[in-house]
TrEMBL record:
GO biological process: tyrosine biosynthetic process
Keyword ATP-binding: no
GO MF, one example: prephenate dehydrogenase (NADP+) activity
Keywords: Oxidoreductase
Protein name, as recorded: Prephenate and/or arogenate dehydrogenase
Domain Prephenate/arogenate dehydrogenase residue range list: 2-286
InterPro entries named among the record's database cross-references: 6-PGluconate_DH-like_C_sf, NAD(P)-bd_dom_sf, PDH_C, PDH_N, Preph/Arog_dehydrog, Prephen_DH
Lineage of origin: Bacteria, Pseudomonadati, Acidobacteriota, Terriglobia, Terriglobales
Length: 286
């Protein structure tokens, strides 16, 4: 693997480039972004070696193509690059929804004469976006999920090598069925985002300009609303492509909140705290 094209040099794409460099990737990293400013920042920070205005040519001439934009852009790139890439190449991505991406990829890749495709999703990120916030260490101790195509042949050498680089970033890897991925991520990633968005929007509606509220809001408020700073441009695509699973998790939370509201003065409130404490003790160990 000598040449990598990163299409989308925002937070995740630029962080991948920085991680590759930190782990001594010896080849050339090409970068493209629809926003020239982001591309320039990625180049100035050393996340990419060359900034290109012709992403198709960069992709066609690379061994590995990483699609690092929002989900809708990934779907568009899959359709555009499908007829152009060859069996000597690998295409992968970092999209937050894998059902729609894997379905589209199966129609374009993995067949005879076609490029290999390994859909992926690093469970890492920030509430801010852009190459200026990229870090080589972003993926350290994170899980990088893969949803291999069901129709794909045995893993190619490039697929194996890409997995090895991901491991060098400090990630644990896990293979999931795309539907299972989207169900789990609706609960562990998408639900927290939409809860933080709703809570932040509610507080802005009720307390906009209230200096006292801002003054007394402490760590709990900051932690609960941190994701409220996340960009709509990314989460719109997630909401549109994982709607059923997200709606199901939101409905379950609505019902749980109603249960809490109804039992603020009953012993059942203790049961909810016990369950919550048990989850935190088992999932987030010191």
């Amino acid at each position: 693997m000598d040449r990598i094209a990163i299409l989308g040099t925002g937070l995740i794409g630029a962080s991948v480039g920085l991680a590759l460099r930190e782990q001594k990737f010896p080849g050339t990293i090409f970068g493209w972004d629809k926003d020239p400013a982001q591309l320039g920042i990625a180049l100035s920070r050393g996340a990419i070696d060359e900034a290109t205005e012709d992403p198709v040519t960069a992709a066609v001439s690379s061994d590995v193509v990483l699609l690092a934009g929002p989900v809708f852009s990934i779907l568009e790139w899959i359709d555009q690059l499908g007829p152009l890439l060859t069996s000597r190449q690998l295409i992968t991505d970092v999209g937050s929804v894998k059902g729609a991406i894997s379905e589209r990829a199966a129609r374009n890749f993995g067949g005879i004469g076609q490029a290999a495709c390994l859909p992926g999703h690093p469970m890492a990120g920030k509430e801010v976006h852009g190459a200026e916030h990229a870090e080589a260490s972003l993926f350290r101790d994170a899980v990088w999920l893969f949803t291999p195509l069901a129709t794909a042949s045995p893993a190619t050498a490039l697929e194996t090598e890409w997995r090895e680089w991901v491991t060098k970033f400090g990630c644990r890897t896990l293979d999931l069925d795309p539907a299972r991925h989207d169900e789990l991520c609706a609960w562990v990633s998408h639900l927290p985002q939409f809860v933080a968005t709703a809570m932040s929007a509610l507080l802005e509606d009720k307390f906009a300009g209230d200096a006292d509220m801002r003054a007394i809001g402490g760590r709990a408020l900051r932690e609960m609303t941190r994701l409220g700073a996340s960009p709509y441009s990314m989460w719109r695509d997630v909401a549109h492509t994982n709607t059923e699973a997200i709606a199901g998790s939101l409905l379950a939370l609505e019902q749980r909140l109603m249960h809490l509201r109804e039992h603020l003065k009953t012993p059942e409130l203790r049961d909810e705290f016990d369950l919550a404490n048990r989850f935190r003790a088992g999932r987030f160990r010191p």
